[in-house]
Design brief:
With about 450 residues, the chain is an alpha+beta fold. It is about 45% helix and about 15% strand. It has helices at about 10-20, 25-30, 30-50, 55-65, 70-90, 95-100, 105-135, 235-240, 250-260, 275-285, 320-330, 340-355, 365-375, 385-395, 430-440, and strands at about 175-185, 190-200, 210, 220, 225-230, 270-275, 285-290, 295, 310, 315-320, 375-380, 400-405, 410, 425. A hairpin with a 6-residue loop joins strand 2 and strand 3. The longest helix has about 35 residues, at about 105-135.
């Protein structure tokens, strides 16, 4: 259809191509140019819809497990440049460079160009931050840099360079993941793993078990037939400081040891800097826990404002990051000990499970990934994240998770007068029974004479 091109407003044309590249060209009567600009946009939108048709959760996982976030950032920038090209061309069709000198067209183009530039650069930066954050979290060769006593960071963090850990024999095999909290407070000269929890997951049945190793377990057997006399929370640092005795480094030594005691290999690890843990909790919007008994710990000193003591009544509470950290660390209140603390740490993990499977968290994803990149390091394979989210989502309740804390009856105190302060010594017969209950004939104890 013929059009009177001279009567068309370049201001309207610019606005239309801002809304959809090519619309302004069609308005000005240049159908071929309109198709050239509009069709690639339509193809890109169609591709985006196809990608999202698999579900928001699947799309989010795609952004985490591969280069999708980086590619999306590049695509967003390209789309912004395409829109700016379409807008400037639409205005130019209304009178060449003279069109831009008209106040209405010039101001409209400048305003819309700022909107395009800001929105596309912001969206691209968010997508790129997802890519960089995921790269940091899922980078076993560059673990968390946690430095006690304000010392200069090691280029490889407290773990050293971590060699590959034994992977499950088959995709259907049970997965064992070490979850460790790294405590490197400024007044401490060693990095301690005060939180040691093994999450054991059957990807087929959905069975999940959490096994906590209290930090005071000591004098335990090692895979080489020796006995480690110190406490288990010091093993990683000790191994890092004695490379001739432990050539595989601290984290690998700890992983091997826990797998040996448990009777089944640890396949993966996830390490959390406890000082950054509160930021991660805040990023997911807090967690809800049901505190089984009143906590009144007058000695707790982990608050940012420097005050002393932690009190929390029994019952349901929504905890922010700082309070959740106190809930995870406090152990010196009346009736409290390391075992009750371990149970609370398991409770926090399950509360986090509920939050990360909540689809309403999607707008918080950039903040969550950013916080995780500063707090978490893991060698868990990214391609299995969606599978694990499915297992977590399908848990009927927290009560369906089997939970064990390896205090009494799995461990006992040594005779009075034993050097080394308060200690726990594992009852290896009970450990063998627990291992066989959990892993069946796959347990190393099942084959023991």
């Amino acid at each position: 259809m013929a059009r009177n091109r001279q009567a068309r407003s370049p201001t309207i044309a610019t606005t239309l191509s801002f809304l959809w590249p090519g619309l302004g060209q069609w308005y000005m009567g240049y159908e071929r140019a309109a198709l050239i600009l509009a069709v690639p946009t339509a193809i890109a939108i169609l591709g985006l819809l196809i990608w999202l048709s698999g579900g928001i959760e699947s799309a989010v996982v795609d952004l985490i497990i591969g280069p999708s976030a980086a590619l999306l950032a590049i695509a967003i920038v390209a789309a912004g440049l395409w829109r700016l090209t379409a807008m400037s061309h639409a205005a130019w069709l209304g009178g060449g460079m003279a069109a831009f000198r008209r106040p209405a067209t010039g101001v409209t183009f400048a305003l819309l160009a700022v909107i395009v530039g800001f929105t596309h650069l912001w969206a691209a930066s968010v997508s790129w931050s997802l890519y960089l954050g995921a790269e940091r979290v899922f980078s076993p060769g560059a673990p968390l840099v946690v430095t006690p006593n304000g010392s200069a960071p090691s280029p490889t963090g407290p773990f050293g360079v971590v060699p590959p850990v034994a992977t499950p024999e088959t995709p259907d095999a049970r997965i064992n993941i070490l979850l460790t909290g790294i405590d490197a407070a400024e007044n401490r000269h060693t990095t301690l793993t005060d939180t040691l929890i093994v999450a054991s997951i059957d990807p087929v049945s959905g069975d999940v078990a959490l096994i906590s190793f209290p930090r005071d377990i000591a004098r335990f057997p090692t895979p080489d037939g020796q006995t480690y006399e110190g406490k288990i929370n010091s093993l990683m640092t000790y191994a890092n400081n004695h490379p001739k005795q432990y050539p595989n480094g601290g984290l690998s030594t700890l992983v091997d040891e826990l797998g040996y005691l448990l009777g089944a290999p640890i396949n993966y690890y996830a390490a959390v800097d406890l000082d950054g843990f509160s930021r991660l909790i805040d990023a997911v919007g807090g967690i809800t826990v049901n505190n089984p008994r009143t906590i009144d710990d007058p000695t707790y000193t982990g608050w940012k404002d420097g005050h002393r003591g932690f009190h929390l009544s029994a019952g349901v509470h929504k905890l922010n990051g700082e309070t959740a950290l106190a809930y995870a660390r406090s152990r010196k209140g009346a009736g409290d000990n390391d075992f009750s603390r371990s149970r609370r740490q398991q409770q926090i993990l399950l509360a986090l499970r509920q939050r990360v499977t909540d689809p309403t968290l999607l707008p918080r994803l950039p903040s969550i990934i950013s916080s995780a990149s500063e707090t978490v390091s893991t060698n868990f394979p990214r391609e299995r994240i969606e599978e694990m989210l499915g297992v977590a989502r399908n848990l009927k309740s927290d009560d369906s998770v089997r939970r064990f804390v390896l205090g009494p009856p799995y461990a006992r105190n040594p005779p009075k007068g034993t050097p080394g302060g308060y200690q726990l010594v594992l009852d290896m017969d009970r450990m063998a029974k627990l291992s066989i209950d959990l892993f069946g004939q796959q347990s190393r104890y099942a084959a023991a004479p």
